[in-house]
Design brief:
By secondary structure, the chain is mainly α. It is 56% helix and 6% strand.
């Protein structure tokens, strides 16, 4: 991401604002929010490109390395999340280009593009969250 983006924007809590920090700061921010929402890397939805782990009843037990997804599954999840982020980033760039070329005299077209961009940005945020969670989970089992 750092190679293709010169500025990070934070779309959260119904607002969009510049994110002051680098990708490491962003990853920490996303992880802190996920922890606050009690979302663990093994609970990420499959449609976000991460396979979820089966629920286990480990009252008082520490998780061992044999429980949860395997490192190869997590590496695959990281790769899929990266591919999804690249796809969505390209889609946002296309929409931005369409918006720049759209005629101001056609507000309906601009409205549709604005909605499409917001949805795609939301999807990108979810993909980034999945990527960070998969990376964290992979680091825990490696």
């Amino acid at each position: 991401m750092e190679m293709v983006a010169d500025r990070l924007w934070l779309a959260a809590d119904g607002t969009v604002k510049p994110f002051e920090g680098d990708m490491d700061d962003y990853a920490k921010f996303v992880l802190d929010r996920a922890k606050a929402a009690a979302v663990k890397p093994s609970q990420i939805r499959e449609d976000a490109a991460v396979t979820s782990a089966p629920a286990q009843n480990n009252k008082g037990k520490k998780n061992d390395k044999k429980s949860g997804p395997s490192p190869s599954t997590l590496r695959h999840a990281v790769k899929k999340a990266e591919e999804r982020m690249a796809q969505l980033t390209a889609e946002i760039a296309r929409i931005d280009d369409d918006m720049a070329n759209a005629s101001v005299s056609n507000p309906k077209a601009l409205e549709g593009l604005t909605r499409a961009r917001a949805k795609t940005q939301s999807d990108l945020d979810a993909a980034e969250t999945a990527w960070v969670a998969a990376e964290e989970a992979l680091a825990e089992v490696s």
